[in-house]
Amino acid sequence: MKNVGLSPCDPSSFSRPDQVIVTDIFLNLNIQFNSKTLNGHTILSVEKIQEKYNELTLDAFKLKISSIYEVDTKEKLEYQLSDHLEDFGSKLIVQLPKTEANSFKICIEYETSPEASGLQWLSPQATSGKKHPFLFSQFQPTHARSVLPCQDTPSVKQTYKATILAPKDMTVLMSAIKEDSTLVEDNKQSNFNQTVPVPSYLIALAVGSLESRKLGPRSHVWAEKEIIEDCAYEFALTEHQLKTAEEICGPYVWGVYDLLVLPPSFPYGGMENPCLTFVTPTLLAGDRSLANVIAHEIAHSWTGNLVTNKTFEHFWLNEGFTMFVERKIIGKLTSTQMQDFDAYAGISDLEEAISVLGADNPLTNLVVDLRGIHPDEAFSTVPYEKGQTFLRYLESSVGGPEKFEPFLRAYFETFKYKSIETSDFQQFFESYFSTEESIKNIPWQKWLHTPGMPLLIPDYDKSLAVACDALLEKFCKWTGDEICPITAEVTEKLMPEQRIYFLQKLCQSEKQPIHKLKILGDLFDIQKIKNAEIKFHWLKICLKARWEEKIQEVLDWINVVGRMKFVRPLYRELYQWEVSKNRAIENFKANKHQMMHICTISIAKDLKLD
Ligand code: BES
Ligand code: ZN
Fold first, then answer.
1. 384 is catalytic
2. Based on the number of CB atoms within 10 Å of its own CB, is 593 exposed (0-12), middle (13-18) or buried (19 or more)?
3. Does 411 qualify as catalytic in the annotation?
4. Is 312 in the pocket of ligand 1 (CB under 6 A)?
C-alpha cells in the first residue's frame, strides 16, 4: 500500500485541517433497516485557517454523495471524490464559495453504503429479543468516514448535534445528550447534542429495542429487556467508579455517563463513546468481576476524550494513560495489591503480544510510524501495557503517586479539549518537574522509540500472584497418574482475577494431557462458569491440548461472540491444528457476512485468506 494522497497532518486521513477546519457537525439521518443504509444530510461548519485556502478536504468511505451546497446562499459547490483506497476510503475535496468570508456552513446530501465499515446491521435473529433488528456503530480508529463525510482525524475536535429518524418502536442512542423526540407517522425523530468538542471517532450511534435502568445520579444502563436486570446488577458500582475517577483526574465534564450493552457481536470489550460507553455482553459474569472494563472506559473520559492523541501514532497517550488510571481506580476501590496484580498480569499479556509481533517489530515501539499502515492493523496491547509501564516508571521516578497525581490533574487541565502528541506530554512533564534532579536521567528516546519489552519492569506487589504461581507449578509437575495435588478447597478461594491469571499462565506453559484438564475443569466448575475471560482461556488451553470434542464448542461460541480479543486467538489456535484448520476456514466463510467489517478483515488475515 502506497501513501498516495494521505494527509501530511495524519497518515490515516486524507483531510487537511491545516487549511480549512471543521468546527461543528449537524447530522440529519434516516435509518433504513431494509436497505442497510443511512440517508440524509450533514451540515459542516468550517473555518479557513488562512484566506488563501479555498478547498475543504474530507474523508469519505463508500459514501454516495448527491449534492453539496452552501447553506446560507444555497449555492451549489463543486466537489471531487478520489478513487477508493483500500481501508482508507476516498478523499473528498469541496470547492468553497468565492467570497471574502472565512467561515461557512456546507451541506452535504448523501447515503451510506450497506458495506459501511463503521456500522453493524443485525437481523432480529442476532439479538436477544429476536423481534427487532439492531444497528450499532464503531468508529474508532477511522470508520466515521463510512457514515459521514468528515475530517476523520483525532487532531480535529468539533461539537455535534444530530436528528435521527427511526421506526417508532425502537430506541436511538448517541454519544451525546439526548434531547426531546417527536413522532412522525410510523417513525420517531430523536435529537442529540454534544456540546463538548470531540474527534470524529467518538461520534457513535445505536438503534435497537432497548430498555434502561437507573444506576446512579448521572447514569443509566441500556440493553435489551432480556438482559437488562443482569446489566443493572453487574454495573451497579458505576457511580463509585466515577467518583473515584474524579478524585484522581478532576471534574467529569460530560454530564451523563450511561452504558449501552450491545448484542454479543460487538467487536470490543468496551468503547468510550462520550456520555454513552458501549460494552460487550461478555462482561456479564454475574459477580461484577469484569467491571474493570467500565473503570477503563470511565478513565477515558479524561485520557482520550478530554486529552486526545493527535494521530493514532500516539495511541499510547490514549490507552497507556487509560490503563494507568483504570488501575488507580481499581487500587482505590479494592487494594494496591489488586492494582499491582492487574499490572503484573498485564506484563504477561505484553510478553505474549510482543512474541507474536516479534521483539524487533517497529509496531512494538510506544510511538509508531503509521505511514502506509492502517491503525487497525497496528492495533495491539503494546500501547496499553508498555504505555502504562512507562507511566508507572515516570511516577516512581518523581517520587510516587503523591507527586504524580497532582501532575496528572495539571496535565488534564492544560490539555483538555485539545489533541496532542508525545512531545507535548514530554515537554509538559519536563517543565512541571524541572526542579527534580531524578528526571534528568529518563531515557525518553529508548522508552518511546525502541521496539520490544519495556526497558524496566516496576517491582509490583506480587502477593496475589504468588498463590497462583505455586498452584501452577504444582499442577504442571503433577503427572496425572496419582491423585490430584490441588483440591477444590484451594481453588474455591481464588478470586476470578486469579483464576484468569492461572489459566493464562497455564496456557503459556507446556501442553497439558486431556485427562488432567478434565479434572481441572471440574475443580473450576468450568461448565457453569459465566465469566467470559475464564471461558476464553479455558477453551484456548483445550485447543492447545488437542482436545477434539472441544472444537465444536469453540466454533459455537465464536459464532455468537464477536469480541476480537477472544475470537481472533481462538481462530488462530484452530488454524494451527490440522484437525480443526479446515473447519475453522469453512466456519469463517459461512459466518463472515454476519460479522463487523473489522472482524472479517482481521480474521481473514489470521486464517491467511487475504
Ligand atoms: N478505545 C478502546 C477500543 C478501541 C481501540 C476500539 C482502538 C477501536 C480501536 C477501548 O477503550 C478499549 O481499550 N477497550 C478494551 C478494554 C480493556 C483494555 C479494559 C477492550 O475492548 O478489550
Ligand atoms: Zn481504552
1. yes
2. exposed
3. no
4. no
